[in-house]
User: Which sequence fits this backbone?
């Protein structure tokens, strides 16, 4: 009876959990607009400067140094892309999915109704990638592009709350999700959800990038998705997160052995 009760309680607790996950530099290792810029401007020496500037603006926004709405407007103005570039960008990003997310595909299938992708990126590119993990379309929230008659990106839907400053906070208030809410992301906007009292815990995801101004605001530093799932005692690909394992290497260790242990 005790074992049955314990298992039942654990099942109820897990069912009550909601995971809000960022996309750029979290679900994937890259920033979507950076890859879109690289793809659409490839080989154009004049526009290479724009690629660098877009990357700088992305970093400034992710670190909370400039308002997001300002950063989005600046990046879209610099972007010279067309719908025809999307298939190649999506293919590149599918090869850039964070390794720990790939390892834990089963988690997304098992908890499809409890996982939300909330991103200030763009649905046209995000949906084809996350849908392959079983994430529900109705649980994906992101911005959308506007196009001219030739399919060129002309702007974005400014009515979407995610284009605004503190857009993720505003969206969470509208969604009014009920449950034990956990945010997994790498940027300042992800931290703001917890700071606004709309999440119980903020995991700063550092598998791909570490932002110094976000690290000290996290409830937990997660070097991988394995670490988050371990914390919640959820089915995972690894029985124990690699970042928690420490190995003492003594003298005369072969360089290849050291390299393998670090992997």
Assistant:
């Amino acid at each position: 009876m005790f074992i049955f009760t314990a298992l039942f309680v654990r099942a109820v607790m897990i069912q009550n959990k909601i995971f809000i996950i960022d996309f750029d530099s979290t679900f994937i290792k890259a920033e979507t607009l950076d890859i879109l810029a690289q793809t659409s401007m490839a080989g154009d020496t004049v526009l290479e400067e724009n690629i660098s500037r877009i990357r700088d603006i992305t970093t400034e926004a992710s670190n909370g140094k400039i308002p997001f709405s300002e950063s989005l407007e600046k990046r879209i103005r610099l972007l010279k892309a067309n719908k025809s570039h999307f298939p190649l960008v999506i293919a590149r990003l599918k090869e850039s999915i964070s390794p720990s997310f790939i390892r834990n595909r089963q988690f997304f299938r098992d908890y499809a109704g409890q996982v939300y992708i909330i991103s200030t990126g763009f649905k046209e590119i995000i949906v084809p990638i996350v849908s392959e993990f079983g994430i529900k379309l109705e649980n994906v929230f992101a911005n959308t592009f506007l196009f001219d008659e030739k399919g060129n990106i002309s702007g974005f839907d400014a009515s979407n709350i995610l284009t605004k400053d503190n857009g993720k906070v505003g969206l969470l208030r509208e969604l009014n999700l009920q449950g034990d809410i956990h945010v997994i992301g790498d940027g300042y906007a992800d931290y703001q959800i917890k700071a606004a009292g709309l999440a119980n815990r903020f995991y700063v995801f550092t598998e791909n990038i570490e932002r110094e101004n976000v690290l000290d605001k996290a409830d937990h530093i997660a070097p991988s998705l394995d670490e988050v799932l371990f914390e919640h005692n959820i089915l995972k690909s690894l029985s124990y997160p690699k970042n928690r394992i420490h190995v003492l290497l003594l003298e005369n260790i072969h360089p290849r052995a050291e390299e393998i242990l670090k992997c």
User: Anything to note?
Assistant: The first strand starts at residue 17 and ends at 21. Residues 4-12 have pLDDT under 50 and may be disordered.
